[in-house]
Amino acid sequence: MSKKLCLFLLFCTAGICLYATRLTVLSTTDLHGNVTGNHRGMLRVAYLIEQQKKLYPADSLLLIDCGDTTQGTFSSMVFQGELMIKCLNYLKYDVWAIGNHDFDYGLAVIKKRMREFSGVSLAANLDGPYLAEVHASWKMFTKNGIKVAVIGLTQPEMSKTVLIADRVFETITFGAALKRIMPGIRAARPDVIILAQHQGMYAKGFSIYKFAAQYPEIDLVLGGHTHLDNPGQKIGPHTWYLQTRARACGLGKNVIDYDRKQNKIIKINSEIIPVTVNTPIDKKLLEQIRPALARAKKLAEQKIATIIFKNTRNLDSSFPEQKIIGWMMLEQTRADVAVCNAYPSGYKLAGTVPVTLKRLYYWSSYNNTICTLTLDKAAYQKVMAEQKSLLKKNYRTIITYARKDLFSSKNKIIVAFSSYALAGAGGKFPFLRRVAKNKKFMLKNTGIIIRDGLARYLKGKTFIVSNNADGEISIEQKLRKKVSH
Ligand SMILES: [Zn+2]
């Protein structure tokens, strides 16, 4: 039997028409800096990707990451995300749709990472001059003779998590971005449209079902941001949705069969290939990044200070941790009061604890900076009322005072916050966000990353942190020398 006839019979048995062309889209999202790990990590995801590459020729394969790629682990932080971009480049990713946490290392760094990425960085809803030259809104790929337009959208509420100077960049809504780019995409006549979005199925004022109804020509949506994995489902008459597992715990796979005679997709089959403890690691990738991993490990173990915790066994560790951060912020800024926020960590701190750089990373794993506002009594009271209103949602405010009688001798006080809080903490503090934008309250950003400030504050010393009988947490440098603020 001829090879052609054989293929014909094979297609007929599979129920696929002769004109079907196959396109395979592999996707990851929210990798969050995970390179190593027993049940996760890029080293294992890389193995899965290389396996798929053996099954599908490069000309029929697209590799897309949906963002929050570079932040989330100590080793990724050490290299400000460069290590993760190296992994993406090694695997020849075609598209990187930027996530909100990819901005955590600052604008100069994200610009560098976007430049280093060998594929195309996409964010159609990112406006402003600073990043314009390093990203695009969408890109047309030709795969197996099929024209595939890939659109990228980043998290639209970015300005509520990142303290951005005016006009450097802004994010616009998905709707506004698509309204702008769809005419150009339609004119380019793609066969397939894929949307890589750093957002899940639902967000405030957003539903993927409504969105798919508005733009029915989108064939496949790859989601992210919410860490809610979804192996694939229909979200519109012709639209499919998939969201891969977060933290490099899986690889999304979408197999699209396209009928070139009828010019339409016949079907999309999708799955999430899980990363398990039995998934081998990609040895070639490991060889390339081994020196970087070794350097990160050495830094992680570097001891900064010793802290002796007394009577803290019943406290969630977030209290003493944020208290220490508060004392550090007071020292760095000479503020009158420091306001810190945290969700409970679920851990306890007790006894003698060696403070390593890695431990400091867990205390403050985002690259937020120390900022101050100068507030009058009325503004301060309103800010604090907003902070307290969040308590019911388990989000704690931990206040550290340089002196208790704040307004007794002055009518204006300096209050230290993290840059994240002043950006509105992802929508939690709209009032504080407005106050920070009001020039009257003289926002100052020290540019000091909280974790770096902590390392400097604690370096080489031994502290005693005690939870006193009156419920107050105090800090004292050992050798009975009080730390002055
Ligand atoms: Zn995100």
Structural descriptors:
2 domains, 5'-nucleotidase,  domain 2, 29% strand, binds zinc ion, 485 residues, 25 strands, alpha/beta, 14 helices, disordered N terminus, Purple Acid Phosphatase, chain A, domain 2
Task: Write a compact overview of the structure shown.
The chain is α/β, with parallel strands linked by helices and 485 residues long. Helix content is 30%, strand content 29%. The chain is built from 14 helices and 25 strands.
| Ligand list | zinc ion
Question: What is the fold named in CATH at topology level of the largest domain?
Answer: Purple Acid Phosphatase, chain A, domain 2
The computed structural class is alpha/beta
CATH superfamily of the largest domain: Metallo-dependent phosphatases
Q: Give the CA-CA distance, first to last residue.
A: 87 Å
Please give the order of strands in the largest beta sheet: 4-3-2-1-15-16
Q: Radius of gyration, rounded?
A: 26 Å
What is the percent of helical residues?
25-40%
- Give a count of the beta strands, DSSP E runs of length 2 or more: 25
CATH architectural arrangement of the largest domain: 4-Layer Sandwich
Q: Catalogue the unreliable spans.
A: 1-16
Continuous helix count: 14
CATH class of the largest domain: Alpha Beta
Number of domains: 2
Give the integer mean of the pLDDT values.
Answer: 92
Quaternary arrangement of the chains shown? single chain
Outline the biggest β-sheet.
6 strands, mixed
Shape: globular
